[in-house]
Amino acid sequence: MPRSKKFGNNYWEVYSPKICRNVRLFSDLEYDNWVLIETNPDIVSFCEQPLKVQEEIDGKIYETIFDMWIKRKDGTEEFIEVKYSKDVESDRNERVQRQLFIQKVWCAKNGYKHNIQTEKHIRGNPIYLANMKLIIPYLKQYPNLIETDKYKIMKALQNGCRTIKDIEDYSNSKTILESIIHLFYEGLLLANLHKHPLTVHTKVWLNE
């Protein structure tokens, strides 16, 4: 979609390690939504602005484009529309209400889940969102997991959780932090990043 088609929003072009290409997003809220999708190990693929659909309303054809399509590990697919809650909750915004109606009808006809994401969910946990934004640059700078680091991390955690600093001291590796982030990104490690900022004192453990 050309940038001229959108107005009043901020434009983002970012690299996605998950799908190995640049992703184009048309608002700050869409960018934050992408961050959560990119760092969710349950989501294996996605596409922004994936599909234009149309429906007839009162004898007139209307079109809309979804903001995002995702595919999960279990094979389920989902179409997402990103909107601010004030637009979704207002009956006076006929354009938005019509857009959401068309999307819901099309998804119901074709057997897909339709999900409306607002800032209440996307930005509901600012600590977690900030942590995920910290993770992404590491993935871009170090795209490949070092297998020797993985072995050291798994061995360090075989008796329970440890801090990142503990694992760094144990492994004596300069790239251990990047490898820990990779394993978290892949869903092999867990950490309480919903409540605490990501630091060397963050505790991590195996996802068993």
Q: Which short descriptors sum up this protein?
A:
208 residues, alpha+beta
Architecture blueprint of SSEs:
Layout lengths: L11 E5 L4 E5 L2 H11 L4 E6 L3 E6 L2 E6 L2 E5 L4 E6 L2 H5 L4 H17 L2 E5 L1 H4 L3 H16 L5 H10 L5 E2 H8 L4 H10 L3 E3 L11 E4 L2
Parallel strand pairs: 7-8
Antiparallel strand pairs: 1-2, 3-6, 4-5, 6-7, 9-11, 10-11
Helix pairs in contact: 1-5
Descriptive notes:
It contains 8 helices and 11 strands. It has 208 residues and is α+β, with helices and mostly antiparallel strands. A hairpin with a 4-residue loop joins strand 6 and strand 7. Helix 1 packs across helix 5. The radius of gyration is 20 Å and the shape is elongated. The relative contact order is 0.11. The mean pLDDT is 92.
In short:
The chain has 208 residues and is α+β, with helices and mostly antiparallel strands. The chain is 39% helix and 25% strand.
Order of helices and strands: EEHEEEEEHHEHHHEHHEE
Q: How far is the N terminus from the C terminus? A: 42 Å
Mind telling me the C-alpha Rg?
20 Å
Alpha plus pi helix count: 8
Per DSSP E runs of 2 or more residues, the count of β-strands stands at 11
Ranges with pLDDT <50 over ≥5 residues?
none
Alpha-beta classification: alpha+beta
Average pLDDT value? 92
The biggest beta sheet reads: 4 strands, mixed
Assign a percent range to the helix content. Answer: 25-40%
Strand content: 25-35%
* Bulk shape: elongated
The main sheet orders its strands as 3-6-7-8
